[in-house]
Design goal:
alpha+beta, four-stranded antiparallel β-sheet, five-stranded antiparallel β-sheet, Beta-Lactamase, 9 helices, single chain, flat
């Protein structure tokens, strides 16, 4: 097939192949992620089961089993706890959590199942010496890491290694505290090594994507041919469209007439809009007049506030003093900058601060008016008997924003 449509087919096939390749990559990565997730969840389960078994052993202070060649007395325990004798004189070995864990790990190893290894950087038993791959993880646990894991190839088999720290408990300290890293409560760690028997073959995924890719290419080529045929039909339709052009010219004349009518409507709506704008301008002028009046009222309020003979404070709900007048400064002997912008209990401390009798606390709890006799402390040390009146301070909508406190000198 020649012409521009051949290029469209090549572009469509290229995009389709890129999409299939992206799907292949995503599924491959997802399989790897699923494999890692299954491995670490399984290893954590085994690790948790080991900890549960050790906890059970600790709950009972260890368990005693008859001494055999496989269970001789533990030479690393205190001598008085290594074994006991039953009523027949047979020796019973004390099996502590570590001893029990080692025997479980040995049984599992002999059966070719999951391998466990209890170890540390400073093991008491030489047999517990860490494997080379365990050393960096033990060092990381000493620095605060919680777990480590990785895949490895051993003797041609894929193995998943997992390790988590083993906290030092009180019952472990008599034997292990001396070998524990200073400043750490991590005695050692338990590693879990899992053989990875599950291997997803890549071939089903590969052939399924090949099939999808080929199916898509066939579909693109097929529908591309149909598209070319449609193009021919469109060219034929153009001839008919030219005939319709003449008919549309007549329609355009009708549209011109409609346009003239629309212009008249637009002129009418424009006049209405002009009248609306004039009314809006009048409203803006009225708003500006109201704002100027409010500014004047605010100036008068500030003048009245600052010239009032009694001390006045405006305090918000967070105990911040947001306004103070001159009389309050004279009453306390402090400058405005030492009061305004500070917490009330810091700038003007009193016996009622941080108590339920605090006027602001009472106002916040719904009290409409609070009157209390107090002694204001002047900066020169003079105590001035005063009557404090506190009332709620609300915003225009009625929400409580703080309180207004008036302090009157009643020493006369």
């Amino acid at each position: 097939m020649s012409g521009p449509f051949s290029h469209y087919r090549i572009t469509a096939v290229t995009i389709w192949l890129l999409a299939v390749a992206s799907s292949w990559t995503w599924n491959t990565v997802d399989n790897i992620r699923e494999k890692n997730s299954i491995a670490i969840v399984t290893a954590r389960a085994f690790y948790g089961q080991i900890l549960a078994s050790r906890q059970w052993n600790l709950m009972h202070g260890g368990v005693y089993v008859y001494s055999t060649a496989l269970s001789p007395p533990n030479q690393f325990l205190p001598k008085d706890k290594q074994f006991i004798l039953d009523e027949k004189g047979k020796r019973l070995t004390l099996m502590n959590p570590s001893y029990m864990t080692r025997q479980i790990a040995e049984i599992s190893r002999q059966k070719g199942l999951v391998r466990f290894h209890i170890t540390s950087l400073t093991p008491l038993r030489p047999e517990n010496k860490p494997y080379p791959w365990e050393v960096p993880w033990l060092e990381a646990f000493a620095r605060g890491s919680h777990e480590s894991s990785s895949f490895a190839d051993e003797d041609g088999k894929e193995i998943f290694h997992y390790m988590a720290p083993l906290p030092l408990q009180e019952s472990c300290k008599p034997c292990h505290s001396a070998a524990t890293t200073a400043g750490s409560n991590i005695r050692g760690a338990i590693s879990v090594s899992l053989p990875i028997p599950f291997h997803k073959s890549v071939w089903p995924l590969f052939f399924s994507h090949i099939f999808v890719a080929l199916t898509g290419i066939v579909g693109i080529l097929f529908f591309g041919g149909r598209l070319a045929q449609s193009r021919k039909n469109i060219l034929k339709s153009n001839t008919r469209l030219e005939q319709e052009v003449e008919e549309r010219k007549e329609t355009e004349k009708e549209l011109i007439s409609i346009k003239e009518n629309l212009e008249q409507i637009v002129d009418s709506r424009t006049r209405e809009l002009r009248r609306s704008n004039e009314a809006l301008d009048a409203e803006i002028e009225e708003q500006q007049r109201i704002e100027a009046a409010l500014v004047s009222i605010n100036d008068e309020f500030i003048q009245i506030f600052n010239t009032a003979p009694d001390g006045m404070l405006v305090i918000d709900l967070d105990f911040n003093i947001i306004r103070v007048n001159h009389a309050q400064c004279l009453l306390t002997g402090k400058d405005i900058k030492d009061i305004q912008g500070h917490k009330c209990y810091e700038a003007l401390p009193g016996k009622l601060c941080h108590t339920d009798q605090c006027p602001l606390k009472q106002i916040r709890n719904g009290t409409k008016r609070v009157e209390i006799e107090i002694h204001c402390i002047h900066t020169d040390g003079t105590e001035i008997p005063c009557m404090v009146t506190a009332t709620p301070f609300k915003e225009p909508g009625g929400a409580l924003t703080g309180m207004i406190q008036v302090t009157r000198d009643v020493s006369d």
